[in-house]
Amino acid sequence: MSETAHGSSHHSAHHIDVKEFHPRARAAIHNPQVRQNFRKAMDGLMSKRKSAFEGWDLETLRDLGANIRMRALASLPDLLEQLEQKLTENGITVHWAADGDEACRIVRDICVARDAKTAIKGKSMVSEEMELNHYLEEQGIEALESDLGEYIVQLAEETPSHIIMPAIHKNTGEISQLLHDKTGTDLSNDVEYLTANARLQLREKFRNADVGISGVNFAVAETGTLCLVENEGNGRMTTTVPPCHIAVTGIEKVVPKLEDVTALLALLTRSATGQHITTYFNMISSPRKANELDGPEEVHVVLVDNGRSTIYQDDELLDTLRCIRCGACMNHCPVYTRVGGHTYGTTYPGPIGKILMPHMVGLDEGRHLPTASSLCGACGEVCPVKIPIPDLLVRLRQESVDGDKLHPAKVRGHGAKRSGVEAMIWKGWSWMHARPGLYRLGTSLGARFRKLQPGKVGAWTQYRTAPKLAPKTLHERMKERGQ
Amino acid sequence: MSSRDAILQRLRNRTGGELTAPECDFSVLDRPDWSTAERLDMFERTIESVHGEVHRTTESGWIDRLAEILQSRGAQTLLIAKEHEIGQALRSATKNREDLPQLLVYDEPIESWQEALFNEVDAGITSTRGGIAETGSLILWPTADEPRLMSLVPPIHIAVLKASELYTTFHDAMQSQNWAAGMPTNALLVSGPSKTADIEQTLAYGVHGPKELIVLVIE
Amino acid sequence: MVDPIKVYPAKPSKVYFYGTCLVDMFYPDAGMAGIQLLEREGIQVIYPEDQTCCGQPAYTSGYHDEARAVARAQLGLFPEDWPIVVPSGSCGGMMRKHYPALFKDTSDEVAAAEIAGRVWELTDFLVNVCHITLDDLGEPTTVAMHTSCSARREMGVAEVGPKLLGQLKNVNLVEQVRAEECCGFGGTFAVRHPEISGAMVSEKVDTLVDTGAKEFVTTDCGCLMNIAGYAEKNQKPVTGQHILSFLWERTSSGGEPS
């Protein structure tokens, strides 16, 4: 039993120091390969998304997406119970995990009960959140990624740098070298060749795996159905060939009606990769039935909380849980494009990462996440479920500095970024700017003594000339005019 | 207290205000009322753009077309379902013609012949429960008779689609066929041969699912 | 997010002018140009003397108590039911979009919402309320428009700048690639994450230079300082102006210097 509502796995030795955002950002910015790979990739994804939505009333479609997700969240506990009931009726075993650690143990226990030694995995960001692969390896269970991007990342012993395209930070040459070094393929920039080899190598693994582990894109309460999107076929292989299928999902992924998935699917694939639909849309509602000839004999679903029920407490922060994990936000983010996914040091990078991860790792650990944004709003503009990401970033900044006595902060690690010095500066600034006479005095003095203005103003003048104070303020000029 | 109870309790005792469920209007998904011909054109265009192959044929001509296609691929074996009329028709046809590959019937649990399925079957043929024009998708509804792996493992998947069962949108299909009344073990939308863009966003076809998806449209 | 439908008022006889602190201290010419453009349209401009700052810098830094204190000092400046015009997408956005949230659960909630509803970005006001027509008296030039993120996404005025510039017959308006991408200013972002901001402004300047334009214009002083300041320090062949200064210069003969 576990009372913890918040996440973060403690068992892994694979811990990345989230606080070290700045040095990683610096390194990424000065790495021409990273800059080039991401610029090209993001430009392509943005353009594809735009084309895919041509002819759509996109604003109305996004409204529908937001409403569907809000409708689900409005009755989340009831929905989860309904989902559990339907899944169970259908023969699927439902497990609940308070956090990532517990979820890992549940998966292990299922494997142990079946004497399972090898697991093949479809892509699942929740499993990354849980750091499931490392945990299973420690427990003596091999966990092999079957999605090509995840497979590449696993071979490189890295983490995904994007939630949809895990190996987006690598170009063809880098992948070719990696596959050559780790699996013996020829050095080749022929993508067909590299892909054909992956197919060959993974086919054996599908056949022999004891357990298949997948994520879930949407879980439908009405029918007890797990929906998955994919292009490669590895998801279907993972959920059909091994004798046992374990699906892991965040608790927020449930929707009430089967009809809901039609709109969410239309939004998801176009927002993510600019595809009208993925090659496969897989809808699983039970294990193999008595008269059926294939499919897993056991299907399990692990419902993972890991901080989501805490986010759920707050009316504003709740919007974070609408997310359908499309990745459009990071595709359009000028910060993500410059620093790449690994800079964030968190499971989910980019804008969604910045509003989600502070709840999981805390605002102390994740201190740089809420400020790593110019609040340009490109993310919020493309979010298929209209999450007000810039507003949530400002909220998290307020939480980081305990900046609002009217709305006391509550997010884990709140106040971690409040510094005595900065608070004093804002108090002083506020004191002056709330007193018009003082403000006018201060600014006209500034104008008068502008020649004394320093030429170097910290980080600003590293890149730019300092802005120049005008000889007379607008206030002074208006006074002269008699206005 | 179990994690289940703790999670549900936390969700139920939330500190915020009351949450209201907004109305959900699906009419934005509607498309103009297309004729079957228009739907078929849209379906063909869309699935071909992702390397699906469409052959328009008839009740009387599909076996000839199938034979041609499989010969051109050099397919030696074709997996069929046991009871379905497609399989029945092919078994009758084989009695009178030489140009069809060897028919294998999927009538045993996979455990007993997995090796053969993965290594000896060149193509599999399944029915469909219709298709979706807007996205170029086939509706697959595997059954005990047409198991799931038929349309996944063999490198060539041939799907038989009736033109009269083409819907314009996914929403149309789902509502018309009333899926919510009962879902099978595994329902699927299949919209092309398998592919990936994970290597520098360059498209490559034929990953873990079939390398070729061939649709026989019965008009 | 952008108002899906903006209900513009009829052209009024009077407006309040909210200059913004950056215009006040660094670009008063732009403020003066805006005022003169309005006066030329026959509108009397009221400049509340006690205006200081909209409070945005503290707001986006998370110091909401301080932001509220400063913002509260602005609320009493606009007692009459006249439009409030602001020569900035960013400050306009703060007042129009964020004041209601900032004052939620306070006794100023109603007043803040009422004021927010009267706030208009100045170029938007000139085009869609004044229906301004411009007569170009300047020399031929090529110019690029930098629409700030707040102008684009909070105030919904991406089409306004090009409309205004399109009226100037001797101005060749060119568009830079990735025009919608942020210039990297983001207020305190530029000093909290200087390398990322630097990388963003560097690319923005490159795209502007690539258009062949020697100058760019914008509604926002923050972007202006950022982009022009980078270009100046790194000797890039592009300079910048506030769009109001540019418009006034090109459409007035002599008169008050801008």
Summary of the model, kept short:
The complex is a heterotrimer of chains A (about 475), B (about 220) and C (about 260). Chain B is about 30% helix and about 20% strand.
How many discrete domains of chain A? 2
CA-CA gap between termini of chain C: 34 Å
Q: Mean pLDDT across all residues of chain C, rounded? A: 95
CATH superfamily of the largest domain in chain A, please? NagB/RpiA/CoA transferase-like
Shape of chain C: globular
User: Mind describing the biggest β-sheet of chain C?
Assistant: 4 strands, parallel
CATH top level of the largest domain in chain A is Alpha Beta
Unreliable parts of chain A: 1-14
Strand content of chain A: 5-15%
Number of strands of chain A: 10
Question: What's the end-to-end separation of chain A, in Å?
Answer: 70 Å
User: Fraction of residues of chain C in helices?
Assistant: 40-55%
Provide the low-confidence segments of chain C as ranges. Answer: none
Query: Whole-number radius of gyration of chain C?
Result: 18 Å
Please provide a written account of the structure.
The complex is a heterotrimer of chains A (483), B (219) and C (258). Chain A is an alpha/beta fold. Chain A has 2 domains: 1-170 and 210-414, NagB/RpiA/CoA transferase-like (Rossmann fold, 3-Layer(aba) Sandwich); 420-481, no CATH class. Chain A has 22 helices and 10 strands. In chain A, strands 1-10-7-4-2-3 form a 6-stranded parallel beta sheet, with helices on both faces. A 4-stranded mixed beta sheet of chain A has the order 8-5-6-9, with helices on both faces. In chain A, helix 16 (350-365) runs parallel beside helix 18 (389-400). Chain B has 219 residues and is an alpha/beta fold. Chain B has a single domain, classed as Rossmann fold, CATH 3.40.50.10420. Chain B is built from 6 helices and 12 strands. Chain B has helices at 3-12, 36-48, 62-73, 85-96, 114-120, 170-176, and strands at 53-57, 77-80, 102-105, 123-127, 131-132, 137-140, 156-162, 166-167, 186-190, 195-196, 204-205, 212-218. In chain B, the strands form 3 sheets. Chain B has a 6-stranded parallel beta sheet with strand order 1-12-7-4-2-3, sandwiched between helices. Chain B has a 4-stranded mixed beta sheet with strand order 8-5-6-9. In chain B, helix 4 (85-96) links the parallel strand 2 and strand 3 (102-105). The longest helix of chain B is centred in the N-terminal third of the chain and has 13 residues, at 36-48. Chain B is globular. A 4-stranded parallel beta sheet of chain C has the order 2-1-3-4, sandwiched between helices. Chain C has 2 domains: 14-128, no CATH class; 141-251, Rossmann fold (3-Layer(aba) Sandwich). Chain C is globular, with a radius of gyration of 18 Å. The mean pLDDT of chain C is 95. Chain C has 13 helices and 8 strands. Chain C is of the alpha/beta class and 258 residues long. Chains A and B meet through helix 2, helix 3, helix 4, helix 8 and helix 10 of A and helix 1, helix 6, strand 9 and strand 10 of B. Strand 9 of chain A pairs antiparallel with strand 9 (186-190) of chain B, so a sheet runs across the interface.
